[in-house]
């Protein structure tokens, strides 16, 4: 039976690849996509989600969610993703409609409608929508099967401040609420996603697939890997967000450890830090499976196989 998921996203080129992977995989049933402000403001993340779904020739419900963090001013990342958030290829105007219900309401209604323990939330942007849904409807928390999220960093330290990864930093109060919720968490931090580096050969292979999705992935990767090459001296770009979907399809590609993870919200220099107790020194109970390693070749083979099957 296919795994039922809601993708909560702020696309983003790597978000786009994650959505394509999910929609190309029979093991996954995407019940809907909710958008959040993050990489770029909400109107653009919502437009981008519509463009990405349109690439697949699919109609998946898309719901616009929160346009600002719970307590803070929005921080965006056009310096990574370009002014649209999805620079690299012109996909024209979106044709997939936007659903009327707001994203937070959709999360609540879906979790109440589906059988308990059958819906997984896959947040690959700031956690504002998830935290808002949990606060508005506490009854849904126990109905969530699992949360598989991209966010945080420990051994790799931060990418937006010395201590914080972008998704957590944008809304640390939301992240703190989600990490304290008691839901079964799987965390894809920079520690693992920085090992999921594209290569020139893989990008060329995407372009050579000859389908619209392959052309788009190649264009997006060409665009945003420039930033990572300049910043990290890497030879490719990390595909952060697709790690969440790959984990749902092939958990054997990943390894990590169940540990306690707390979110710093008040630090002078460390706001948004994921304080990951890798060595178990705090005495706090484990609340997350914190992923640290990936079978990179297996991951990219999976991506290639599934993206090749798209229109």
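^ structure tokens above, recovered residues below v
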């Amino acid at each position: 039976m296919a795994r039922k998921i809601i993708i909560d996203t702020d696309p983003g080129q790597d978000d786009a690849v994650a959505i394509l992977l999910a929609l190309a995989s029979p093991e996954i049933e995407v019940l809907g996509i909710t958008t959040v402000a993050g990489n770029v403001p909400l109107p653009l993340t919502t437009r981008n989600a519509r463009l990405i779904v349109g690439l697949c020739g699919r109609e998946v419900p898309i719901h616009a969610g929160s346009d600002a963090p719970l307590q803070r001013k929005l921080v965006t990342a056009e310096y990574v993703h370009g002014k649209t958030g999805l620079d690299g290829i012109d996909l024209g105007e979106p044709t997939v409609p936007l659903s009327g219900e707001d994203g937070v309401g959709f999360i609540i209604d879906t979790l109440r409608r589906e059988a308990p323990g059958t819906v997984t939330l896959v947040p690959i942007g700031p956690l504002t929508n998830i935290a808002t849904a949990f606060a508005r409807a506490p009854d849904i928390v126990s109905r969530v099967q699992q949360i598989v999220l991209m966010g945080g960093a420990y051994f790799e330290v931060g990418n937006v401040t010395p201590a914080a990864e972008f998704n957590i930093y944008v809304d640390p109060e939301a992240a703190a609420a989600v990490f304290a919720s008691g839901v079964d968490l799987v965390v894809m931090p920079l520690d693992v996603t920085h090992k999921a580096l594209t290569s020139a050969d893989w990008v060329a292979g995407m372009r050579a697939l000859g389908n619209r999705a392959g052309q788009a992935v190649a264009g997006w990767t060409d665009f945003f890997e420039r930033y990572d090459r300049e910043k990290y001296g890497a030879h490719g770009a990390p595909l952060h967000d697709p790690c969440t979907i790959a984990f749902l399809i092939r958990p054997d590609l990943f390894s990590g450890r169940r540990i306690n993870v707390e979110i710093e919200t008040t630090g002078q220099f460390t706001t948004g830090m994921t304080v990951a107790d890798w060595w178990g020194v705090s005495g706090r109970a484990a609340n997350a499976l914190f992923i640290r390693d990936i079978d990179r070749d297996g991951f990219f083979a999976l991506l290639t196989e599934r993206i090749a099957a798209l229109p």
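The chain has a mean pLDDT of 95.
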